[in-house]
Specification:
Largest sheet: 5 strands, parallel
Shape: globular
Number of strands: 12
Strand content: 15-25%
Bound molecules: 6-O-phosphono-alpha-D-glucopyranose
Mean pLDDT: 95
Strand order of the largest sheet: 4-3-5-6-7
Distance between the termini: 31 Å
Order of helices and strands: HHEEEHEHEHEHEHHHEHEEHEHEH
Low-confidence stretches: none
Radius of gyration: 20 Å
Structural class: alpha/beta
Length: 367
């Protein structure tokens, strides 16, 4: 069956717009909304005994893993190590017999990730895989298969597979937390209710498509763009920068907001747009104070936050994008949308080949 773009100009746009649907589809396999429970497939090992997780992935899937690390450590209090696959084997990681190694991949075929998986198995690890292609090598080699239900992703720059990976990782974090006695049934019900709100909140984020398109001329002429975030929004800053680099060929860097003063602040002048990803919450004030440091140096800020956050800090920004107010657990799923749309519209304005960017491949099967 051939897949069509429908009424979208590019597959990437279609895939961004599909996210509320495919994230809902993915969540349905992991969440029993009525019972207020998360249920990941049964594994042939005891989740309650997992006391360390080793995560490995590449590219966008790696950033999903970084968000997952925040969630697993926060909710389940299980330490997580995370590596890019091309580094993992060569640093000779310390892997204790019977540990859980988790591999994240859209394609399930990325050579570095697959080699890392086989290395982990040789070291006696249990293998869990979050993968979008159910017939892939990684899916076949897993002890615990955690599929994403994004459907075929054609655009080389990953969008819907990423948010579906986040949905699965959130479910896994909650499941681990319960298995480890870290969540009461009541707390789990609350989290499940928040997860169930994600697709609708993502749809609201997509409603900003036209507004974000109108902002593209603010970013398209830049030579460098900086993305800032804290906590789980730090990997979102990395992912935002990666999306922009991949499809618009503008140099972009994602930075932990608090780390900016240790280097990238030297780059700031009025030619460097700075995209700040800052849902309101416990880390908001700190991020805003980093944002003020940018402003004091003439930097032009695009702030992505919710109504409360924008009321507090939106003034004086070059532009703002208002996201619905959401629970911190689902914020990365929602805030993924505006960073994807911004990269997309900047690339379209620059006239690049959005679905097939130069030098990149959808699935990299060489090491
Ligand atoms: C390539 C793609 C990226 C993707 C990465 C990892 O570089 O262009 O979009 O994130 O591979 O791919 P995987 O299939 O393992 O998630």
């Amino acid at each position: 069956e051939t897949i069509s773009k429908g009424n979208h100009a590019h597959f990437m746009r279609k895939e961004i717009f599909e996210q509320p649907l495919v994230v809902a589809q993915t969540l349905q396999s992991y969440v029993r909304a009525f019972e207020g429970e998360v249920a990941i497939p049964a594994a042939d090992f005891d989740l309650s005994k997992v006391d360390r997780v080793t995560m490995v992935a590449c590219g966008t899937s790696f950033y999903a893993g970084m968000v997952g690390k925040y969630w697993i450590e926060r909710f389940a209090r299980v330490p997580v190590d995370i590596d890019v696959a091309s580094e993992f084997r060569y640093r000779d990681p310390v892997l204790e017999e019977g540990g859980l190694a988790l591999f994240i991949s859209q394609s399930g075929e990325t050579a570095d990730t697959l080699a890392a998986l086989r290395h982990a198995r040789e070291q006696g690890q249990k293998i869990a895989v979050v993968v979008n292609v159910p017939t892939s090598s990684m899916a076949r080699e897993a002890d615990l298969l955690l599929p994403t239900r994004a459907g075929p992703e054609i655009g080389v720059a990953s969008t819907k597979a990423f948010t579906c990976q986040l949905a699965v990782l959130a479910a896994l974090a909650v499941n681990l937390a319960r298995a480890r006695g870290r969540l009461t049934a009541e707390q789990e019900r609350e989290i499940v209710a928040h997860l169930a709100e994600a697709p609708e909140a993502m749809a609201k984020a997509i409603d900003h498509d036209e507004q974000i398109k109108a902002m593209a001329p603010l970013v398209a002429p830049a030579r460098d763009v900086l993305y800032l975030g804290r906590g789980p929004d730090y990997p979102m800053a990395l992912e935002g920068a990666l999306k922009l680099k991949e499809i618009s060929y503008i140099h972009a860097e994602g930075y932990a907001a608090g780390e900016m003063k240790h280097g990238p602040i030297a780059l700031i002048d009025d030619n460097v747009p700075v995209i700040v990803i800052a849902p309101s919450g416990p880390l908001f004030d700190k991020t805003v104070s980093n944002m003020q440091e940018v402003r004091a140096r003439g930097g032009k800020i695009i702030l992505i936050s919710d109504a409360d956050g924008l009321a507090q800090a939106g003034e004086g920004c070059l532009a703002t994008i208002e996201m619905p107010a959401v629970h911190e657990l689902i914020a990365p799923l929602v805030y993924a949308v505006p960073v994807q749309l911004l990269a997309y519209h900047v690339a379209v304005l620059k006239g690049t080949d959005v679905d097939q960017p130069r030098n990149l491949a959808k699935s990299v099967t060489v090491e």
